[in-house]
Amino acid sequence: MTDPADPRHRLIVALDLPGVPEAEALIDRIGDAATVYKIGYQLGYAGGLALAERLAARGLKVFLDLKLHDIGNTVEEGVRAASGSGATFLTVHAYPQTMRAALRGRGAGLKILAVTVLTSYDDADAAEAGYALPVAELVARRAAQAAEIGLDGLVCSAAEAASVRRIVGPGRLIVTPGIRPAGAEAGDQKRVMTPAAARTAGIDHVVVGRPITGAADPRAVAQAIVADLA
Ligand SMILES: O=C(O)c1cc(=O)[nH]c(=O)n1[C@@H]1O[C@H](COP(=O)(O)O)[C@@H](O)[C@H]1O
Questions:
Q1: In this predicted model, what pLDDT tens digit does every residue of 143-172 receive, in sequence order?
Q2: Any idea where the Orotidine 5'-phosphate decarboxylase domain is (predicted)?
Q3: CATH number of 7-228: 3.30.200.20, 3.60.40.10, 3.20.20.70, 3.30.300.30?
Q4: Minimal CB count within 10 Å: which of 63, 153, 186, 191?
């Protein structure tokens, strides 16, 4: 992970798999085509947290996608505990109390990313959850709050990346899930873009799960996505 211009570092592969053996097998198949891996609920609750340290020791970057959101004390102490895991990125939901608490618990070397509005939400889902704002406005509001509080980066859809960049400036990371190569199934994602369009929109990293984990040749899919991120 020495050359920041290497487009492989822009791809984060979501290890949404049932267990550590499956995750390790996928990482082996992908080989040097990817350098950053995300461990979320599914793998994390199936022994994946211990994997983070091993991957970091191999020189890979780890994104712990815990999406923390709780009372401040619990978030602060949770982030403090995760700071020793070897992870580079950790997610929290973009609520002001939660974001402030996460920064209090953040250890050296850990970047806290604020999840603005999940990419599986559209305006109707936000309204159903009680929000009066359309998704794009809610993302903008949360991005501004995250920047003011001092978060290291934001998670949003690539559809909002250009406007989020104008709000948060060049110094914060923009990380976008909901990425689908042309023709790939969206599944439960509602705010979707292709890797090339996301790159044009100014993202720092894309997160890709099922298009890679479900592929017959995950290395080839990862390489094709990286080529679009160059
Ligand atoms: O925080 C995330 O990574 C995340 C935020 C978000 O808004 N949407 C979203 O899909 N994600 C994660 O990104 C990954 C996307 O996976 P695929 O839809 O399979 O590519 C999953 O691991 C999600 O948990």
A1: 999 999 999 999 999 999 999 999 999 999
A2: 10-225
A3: 3.20.20.70
A4: 186
